[in-house]
Amino acid sequence: MSLTRARAVVLVVALGALALAAAGPAWVRAETTTALDPHVAVAVSGGDAAPAVNAAGLVLVAAGLALALGGRLARAIVLAVVAAAGVLVAWSAVAVAVSPQEAATAGAVAVAGVTDLTAPASVTAWPWLCAAVGALAVAAAAGVGVAARRWPSSSARHERTGASAPGRADAPEAAAAADAQVDPHDAWDTLTRGADPTAPADR
């Protein structure tokens, strides 16, 4: 199945939407304590743990829509942006998955106002899934770049409206002459003589 322009647009937009969706659930879980509650659960979403993922996801959606427009140069720029956004998504997600302590501490501050954790930070599957989406975005940019070589070139749809067609230079003058008003009485007299009232008068 060939990767057409429409399919490429859907693919990149879908990857951006997946990155945004993967950033919603909790990526890091931990536990902290306060003076009132010795067991306070800490859950940090992907958007909080790695804000760059949301930004890169929005860029992917916008870049996917931009693929439907523009020529070869614009397409090359858009695909470079897609690849860069994919790298950012993957790198941000892996960074949180490998080292979740900082995100868990920030979550504890947001939830309980303390920095001490009473349980080690654990990582869910979501950052790894998000990293996979980023890798797919990079692969998609490369695949679309190869497939785009077979896409038909955009035809020139907009031409100069001021240019007249060949042989039609006198069209405005002819239209003006045809629209000239004929006096009703003269037209009736001409018809009674069996002549055409719209014919030009002999000079």
From TrEMBL:
Residues 163-181 have a biased composition (Low complexity). Keywords: Membrane, Signal, Transmembrane, Transmembrane helix. The keyword Membrane applies. The chain crosses the membrane at residues 49-69, 76-98, 125-148. It holds the Pfam family Trp_oprn_chp. Residues 151-203 are annotated as: Disordered. InterPro entries: Trp_biosyn_TM_oprn/chp. Residues 1-21 form the signal peptide. This is Putative membrane protein (TIGR02234 family). It comes from Xylanimonas ulmi.
